[in-house]
Specification:
heterodimer; A: 723 residues; two-stranded antiparallel sheet; 70% helix; B: 541 residues; mainly alpha; 22 helices; 2 strands
């Protein structure tokens, strides 16, 4: 079982690639990109191997297959098709010891892990290939590839982690990579601002992760007597009714981890960093801010799901914090997508909305549906982002503004157009594309688990998704081309800077820039691969086929996994949801064709106010940036510093000055007039020895020392009196 | 069994720098090369002996004092020359001799005005005597003397080679810490007179006093004695509200002075808590711990907010020390093995990371002639390597997992969940949340500094300036630190393995609470923490 047992190689290879690119990348013929592509390719192969071996492991356990001697022996245990439990593959080594506790680092490979490994390595590989062309000539091309490798390694570390602390390490590292890559073009302040905003907002959520992970340690300690971060131990501690773990602790832990999810997975109200993160290069947006890093929160939710299930009492139905946050995010994200003119921002808000679906799915007890939606969404959203990148690269002179620089690109960029439409339809949930199956599964389970409200929210969200994606497709590819036929007045500083080595290629590229044209194969190739998955990934869970569910079902302790058994496909609900999505497309299309009343927000005051509210993003950015951050950085920090300099420090300074004054008085009146006078009066013996004394006594040091002596004497007195 | 090395290693580690200092002072002032080489070879020899000590150290018995030497010294007060290392002091000793070498290398061509390498390096070597000595001393008087030796060289370093406001800063530093030391000395004397170690009587021996654990001293007196120790150590750490000497001292000190101040000198205070205050007066420690924890979390938030108000890069880094040492003290205040281990890790990590940040601040100042944040910008453009190193250190400092800083922060926060010594859980869990909020603020000020200094484009006044990127002396001094930051971040057991037993047996043992489950399930301490003690004592003379 090489591929499962040695899965630690999957994150290790890109990690080594990071080091190699960083140290030697600049001297390589392709500036380090070759190392990145090859290493991620190797990881992808290993991940595919792991998927295959895992599926075999599951099949073998059912006794229906003859593959593998080990598999058979397990199969024998569960004879007559009674399913034997398929255990995750676990390996660990000692990481460190503290307080006599040996803490380990290791891998936990199960269905969830192999699915994520596959998604991460595939999208990462495609993005690596895509960036060869997209980032060509960038002044920090090598660093870009180094950071892509480090990101991939960190994300995979998060995925294979067998304990929450290791997961936290990967989690923070992907956040750091995200920071660096969003700020890739840090010469311009908006970019570095966006990077800081992303890091600090997710870090705010990480208050929850930090405290939540700490609580996972103590949950296991309550149950077993020895603290541990181990995820298997955690899940059994939570699900085992005999373990002495109080519900309060689990609830607090769930709440804390929920905060982490809110921060990382762009949930309301900490979603505001994600649209700003679009300041980074588009391949980064596709990889980090659509397909992988932002789903880390959902992954965490799925990984330690029993904590949420028990903590938030998800089995009770009705409403709970997790479902509520997810549901709110579905709607607020989708609403904001309507008022964006920047194509990437529309996709960013769409990502927020879709992440809302996943969190909502977890909240309503639909574990498989959440993971399935994570899986399909990665493909079509990466497809859309890379499609937007292709448009900007070859169609709109590096602009992302749909209203000023796009339109009518359908005829210039047929490949990009086709793949983009496929991605849009999949996202909108049109039968039989991938998004249809996964979204439908969320809805049907929400309805079944007594979460009717969220079923409705899901349908409303589906309508809006279809409508805003129609708007994007229309504005970008249909109508008249609105962009300049000449190169953009000020092309992006760095994207326009070409490396001398690539001169021949870049001259050719520059010649093409003048009018919109189709992107080359390095860009369209990945688009087609992703489109393929956007079409077919959903069939994995075709009714009565249900392979996704069977292969990748949760590996939770016995007695808990069964609770999560998803319900079957519901044809009526499926029809309704397709109709809803279809009407969204139809209405939006009609609107842009001019068949519906236009300019409502200009005529109706209420609509106008609503639009303003949306354009200002619910004023959340105002609250965070102008009120909270500016408040802390401005008056609060300044006030604290004023207090420091004028209160605390002055106690010290005045003590010093007081001592000096005391010394002077002592010297002038006691020493000179009193003692000295007495001495002078008795006999004129002193001569100039008084001058000598003065010299010594005027130093500041002495006066301070006097205070010291006084203080010490007082303290000594207190000490002796008290004893 | 006692080989030559066993009985001389620590003495050499402490006094080789003293010999070097004497040689340096005897050399004529013009012989700069000879002076520099003397200093370098001296510090290298010291580091060599430290490494040899580590190599011969028995890591299976980290809770036992090793390389122990006891000689009669001041018989009239029963004070001995007693030096030894265990798992608590070893990492600190290693850090101290390691950083000093790098400081000499960095100084090579960077002597601040008024130059004079002879005096500067002689002071640096004397400083090392004090630092190394403090970490190996096992006798309170000896400890006190080494603790005080540190003061003078640093006073002159700031006062002579410092910035424009050096006089004020150096006097403030000197008097403030001297004030604390005086109270500390009083407490040492009180311990001598009040604690009656069975079979020994009055003693300054730290090991014996720890074994006695304050028995026979009424609680009120214990509290007072602890108070004296607290003020002495808290000023050195520095804890809020005794920290105001620190930003001034750091801002005015020459680069190497700042590095040593941050990397080693602050640790003398925290080390004092772990080595002296907690084990010798455990009952008082329990009463003081909630207050120490409170001041720690105030320090975490206060230090971070202070950072955000700064206009000077170096002063910002100085303020960040207040916040970081808050995490260290928070770990100590939990009175758990887990937390104190974290504190020691935090001490080493902060030493490396903040030391490194001060190095960079020094080089930025050297290049731009200013440290004003509003005038800096685009460092990544003009000196990309230095810019990336700054970014790396900022990430390390904000506690990014995978780098050293994380292992000081996270376990310290974790230990507050279940504090030892029957401390209030709700109180310490509140501290936990506040400390977690502090990590966000830490990210805030560090990234804000990074943005101001490294991102963007250079300001017009420096647009045409020729900025030197990292030179070979800087590389030599910095690469070892950077590698260590990564190594400790990936393999935290490099330190935890060394400190764990020692902390469990020597510091945290009295606080294992009976009502709540401790973090540590088993405790395998040697019956007598010092088997070699009695035999070694006879050989004194």
């Amino acid at each position: 079982m090489f591929f499962l047992d040695q899965a630690w190689l999957v994150p290790l290879i890109p990690a080594l690639s990071f080091v190699v690119i960083l140290l030697f990348g600049k001297r390589m013929p392709r500036h380090g990109s070759e190392v990145g592509v090859v290493s991620v390719g190797a990881s992808f192969v290993l991940a595919c191997g792991a998927v295959v071996r895992w599926i075999m492991r599951v099949q073998d356990a059912k006794g229906g297959s003859a593959l593998g001697a080990l598999g058979r022996s397990i199969g024998r245990l569960g004879a007559d098709n009674a399913e034997a439990p398929v255990l995750p593959v676990l390996h660990h080594v000692t990481w460190f010891q503290n307080g006599g506790v040996r803490l380990t680092a290791g891998i936990q490979i199960d269905g969830l892990a192999v699915v994520m490994m596959f998604v991460v390595t595939l999208v990462s590989l495609l993005v690596h290939v895509y960036s060869l062309e997209y980032m060509r000539g960038d002044s920090r091309f090598t660093y870009f590839y180094a950071m892509l490798s480090l990101f991939t390694a960190s994300m995979l570390l998060l995925v294979v982690a067998d304990n929450t602390l290791e997961l936290l390490v990967g989690w923070e590292l992907v956040g750091m990579c995200s920071f660096v890559l969003i700020g890739h073009w840090w010469e311009e302040k908006p970019n570095s601002d966006a990077a800081l905003k992303a890091f600090l907002t997710t870090r705010t959520g990480d208050i929850g992760l930090l405290t939540g992970v700490i609580m996972t340690f103590f949950i296991v300690q309550r149950a077993t007597g020895v603290g541990s971060f181990n995820i298997v131990a955690l899940n059994s501690a939570v699900t085992n009714p005999n373990a002495k773990v109080g519900h309060t602790l689990i609830l607090w832990c769930a709440a804390a981890l929920m905060l982490a999810i809110v921060g990382k997975s762009g949930q309301f109200p900490l979603h505001t960093w994600l649209p700003d993160a679009m300041a980074g290069p588009t391949p980064v947006s596709a990889l980090i801010h659509a397909a992988t890093m932002v789903v880390a929160g959902v992954y965490l939710g799925a990984r330690v799901y029993p904590v949420f299930y028990k903590g938030f009492s998800i089995a009770d139905g009705g409403v709970n914090p997790m479902a509520a946050i997810g549901g709110i995010t579905v709607i607020i994200g989708a609403l904001l997508a309507f008022v964006q003119d920047d194509i990437k921002k529309v996709l960013a808000y769409s990502t927020i909305s879709q992440l809302g679906y996943m969190v909502m799915a977890l909240g309503v007890g639909a574990w498989t549906a959440a993971v399935f939606h994570l899986f399909t969404h990665a493909f079509f959203k990466a497809d859309l982002f890379l499609g937007a990148g292709s448009v900007s690269h070859s169609g709109s002179h590096h602009s992302f503004d749909m209203k000023t620089d796009m339109g009518g690109l359908k005829k210039y960029m047929p490949q990009t157009y086709k793949t983009f439409v496929i991605g849009s339809l999949a996202l909108a949930g049109i039968f039989p594309l991938a998004g249809f199956w996964s979204k439908d599964e969320i809805l049907v389970n929400a309805g079944h688990n007594d979460y009717k409200l969220f079923l409705v929210i899901g349908l409303v969200g589906a309508f809006m998704t279809a409508a805003y994606m129609t708007r994007v497709v229309y504005l970008t590819f249909h109508g008249e081309y609105r962009g300049a036929h000449e190169p953009h007045a000020i092309p992006h500083v760095d994207e326009a800077e070409h490396d001398p080595i690539d001169t021949a290629a870049s001259v050719e590229h520059d010649a093409e820039v003048h009018s919109p044209h189709e992107s080359n194969r390095l860009l369209t190739g990945p688009l087609w691969v992703l489109s393929f998955f956007a079409v077919f990934a959903g069939f994995l869970n075709f009714p009565h086929f249900d392979k996704f569910e069977k292969w990748f079902q949760p590996r939770f302790p016995a007695g808990f996994a069964e609770i999560l058994h998803p319900v079957a496909f519901n044809p009526i609900l499926a029809t309704v949801s397709v109709l809803v999505a279809g009407s969204g497309i139809g209405i939006a299309w009609a609107y842009y064709q001019g068949k519906l009343p236009q300019g409502l927000s200009e005529r109706n005051a209420l609509a106008h106010a609503g639009k303003r509210f949306l354009v200002n993003k619910y004023y959340l950015d105002f609250l965070y940036e102008r009120v909270i951050v500016a408040g802390i950085k401005g008056p609060i920090a300044a006030g604290v510093y004023w207090f420091n300099q004028n209160v605390i420090d002055n106690v010290l300074n005045y003590t010093g000055r007081g001592a000096q004054a005391l010394g002077r008085v002592t010297y002038d009146y006691v020493d000179q007039k009193g003692v000295d006078g007495l001495v002078n009066g008795l006999a004129t013996l002193t001569g100039d020895s008084g001058g000598e004394v003065r010299k010594i006594q005027t130093g500041r040091l002495q006066f301070y020392a006097l205070v010291l002596v006084v203080a010490v004497v007082v303290f000594a007195g207190v000490l002796w009196i008290a004893t | 069994m006692h080989s030559w090395f066993d009985s001389w290693a620590l003495t050499l580690v402490v006094f080789i720098p003293a010999i070097g200092a004497v040689i340096t002072m005897l050399l004529p002032r013009e012989e700069e090369e000879a002076i520099k080489w003397t200093a370098l070879l001296t510090t290298l020899a010291t580091l060599g002996f430290t490494i040899a000590t580590i190599a011969k150290f028995d890591f299976g018995k980290t809770s036992t004092l090793q390389f122990s030497v006891t000689k009669n010294w001041i018989d009239v007060i029963n004070s001995h020359y007693h030096v030894a290392v265990d798992g608590i002091s070893l990492p600190m000793l290693a850090l101290s001799s390691f950083i000093t070498v790098l400081c000499v290398i960095y100084s090579w061509n960077h002597f601040p005005e008024p130059h004079n390498p002879k005096a500067f390096l002689a002071l640096l070597l004397i400083l090392e005597v004090g630092m190394n000595g403090t970490f190996v001393a096992q006798d309170l008087i000896l400890f006190f003397i080494f603790f005080e030796i540190v003061l003078l060289p640093m006073f002159f370093m700031i006062g002579v080679w410092g910035g424009p406001n050096r006089e004020y800063a150096s006097i403030k530093f000197f008097l403030f810490t001297l004030f604390g030391s005086a109270l500390m000395l009083l407490s040492f004397l009180a311990l001598y007179f009040k604690v009656d170690v069975p079979g020994v009587g009055h003693t300054f021996d730290m090991v014996l006093l720890s074994k006695a654990a304050g028995s026979g001293v009424v609680h009120g007196t214990q509290l007072l004695i602890f108070g004296g120790l607290f003020i002495g150590f808290a000023i050195k750490v520095p804890m809020f509200p005794f920290h105001t000497w620190l930003p001034d001292a750091h801002t005015e000190a020459p680069t190497v002075g700042s590095v040593l101040l941050a990397a080693i000198l602050l640790k003398l205070g925290t080390y004092g808590f772990i080595r002296i205050a907690l084990p010798i007066l455990p009952e008082a420690a329990k009463s003081w711990a909630p207050w120490i924890g409170l001041l720690s979390v105030i320090g975490i938030i206060y230090g971070a907010l202070g950072c955000l108000a700064q206009k000077d890069m170096k002063r910002l880094i100085a303020f960040s020390s207040v916040a970081h040492m808050g995490f260290v003290m928070l770990g100590i205040s939990t009175l758990t093995t887990f937390g104190i281990n974290a504190a020691i890790f935090g001490m080493v990590a902060h030493g490396l990371i903040t030391g490194m940040l001060f190095f960079i601040a020094g080089s930025v100042q050297h290049n731009y002639g200013t440290r004003e944040l509003s005038r800096l910008g685009g460092l990544l453009k003009q000196a990309p390597k230095m810019g990336w190193i700054l970014g790396f250190c900022a990430m390390a400092s904000l506690g990014l997992p995978g780098l050293a800083g994380f292992w000081g922060e996270f376990p310290a926060v974790l230990s507050t969940f279940n504090p030892g010594g029957n401390l209030s859980q709700p109180l310490f869990r509140t501290y936990m949340v506040v400390a977690a909020i502090g990590t966000v603020l830490a990210a805030g000020y560090l990234l804000w500094m990074l943005q101001k200094v490294a991102f963007g484009v250079p300001k017009p006044e420096f647009a045409g300036a020729h900025i030197h990127d990292v030179n070979s002396f800087e590389w030599t001094a910095w690469v070892p630190i950077l590698l260590l930051i990564v190594a400790l971040g990936v393999f935290p057991n490099l330190i935890f393995r060394v400190t764990d037993d020692a902390v469990a047996c020597q510091t945290a043992a009295p606080f294992v609470s009976k009502t709540t489950t401790p973090v540590s399930p088993t405790l395998k301490c040697p019956a007598s923490p010092l088997p070699a003690q009695t035999t070694a004592k006879v050989s004194g003379g």
